[in-house]
Amino acid sequence: MLNLSIEHIQSLNTNVHTQPLKEAKRMPDRPIKWDKSYYSFTGFKDPDEDLEQVSRMETTLTSWLDNNGKSAVKKLKNSLPLRKELDRLKDELSHQLQLSDIRWQRSWGVAHRCSQLHSLSRLAQQNLETLKKAKGCTIIFTDRSGMSAVGHVMLGTMDVHHHWTKLFERLPSYFDLQRRLMILEDQISYLLGGIQVVYIEELQPVLTLEEYYSLLDVFYNRLLKSRIPFHPRSLRGLQMILNSDRYAPSLHELGHFNIPTLCDPANLQWFILTKAQQARENMKRKEELKVIENELIQASTKKFSLEKLYKEPSISSTQMVDCCKRLLEQSLPYLHGMHLCISHFYSVMQDGDLCIPWNWKNGEAIK
Length: 367
Prior knowledge:
By secondary structure, the chain is an alpha/beta fold. It is about 50% helix and about 10% strand. The strands form three sheets. The chain has a four-stranded mixed beta sheet, covered by helices on one side. Strands 5-6-8-7 form a four-stranded mixed beta sheet. Strands 9-10-12-11 form a four-stranded mixed beta sheet, with helices on one face.
């Protein structure tokens, strides 16, 4: 045998295995883009080609209804007894407590909603006079208990009866805070030339009455200190909402102003005055669009014999109008007697409601 030294080899192996991992991490993590010829030569799949194929095979409305219509009908049929029970409970409680409405913040299933109403009904049997303090209010089942920025009674679905009872007992003090809030809105309106301060549930974060009052109070005190000169009632008919998470004012397509709580008063004055006419035009368009939207909803409901046609809060009137116009051009027998929700995605809800995206495609998918 040859007596050769292998120390240099062992040293080399040690160096290879002890290379710090951080050096490897310096490599770029973006995928390498190979030329098409590479895939032709190696036989490997081109990921871009796979994506193109998926795009070409994109779901269409008719194909999705063909595949999911029957299961939706079955789920809807199974949910009908519970839906009747839900309507009965809602009407019974609304009458008993003299409520304006009972609503849900989330898309809970019918069984879940029935359970929540049964729970409220049992509480009403135990503390009817206390719950009657909510006379004229809207009750909303949501994630936390309290009063919302617009004065709805919020019942947290994870809270026990004791928490609900305490909330109903405190309603008179909430009503008092609500009156003070309305006065604060009027004072802000007066300082800003008559512009109306509104809270739009669909477009703003869910705030309690206390949180919203605090927001208004901060804004009002800043206005008082600056004393921006607006001509009295010069901005009547216009609307604004307050935002705590924005830094610059903006004009929404629906015609209202988005005003940051900590907005610079001088910038605010310039922005509102230069955009006032555009805001009036946007508001007029919004009203016209709402009329068209309602007409198209009625026409679509009638044509397809839908039990119900509605949209998610995140769907704008423009999107709903576009969707309904295109639906009316189709023949869709699967929709007969169904509950149809216009959304951003395809889905069959647990109780049989059909969700379709507002920008659904038919025939050959549009890339």
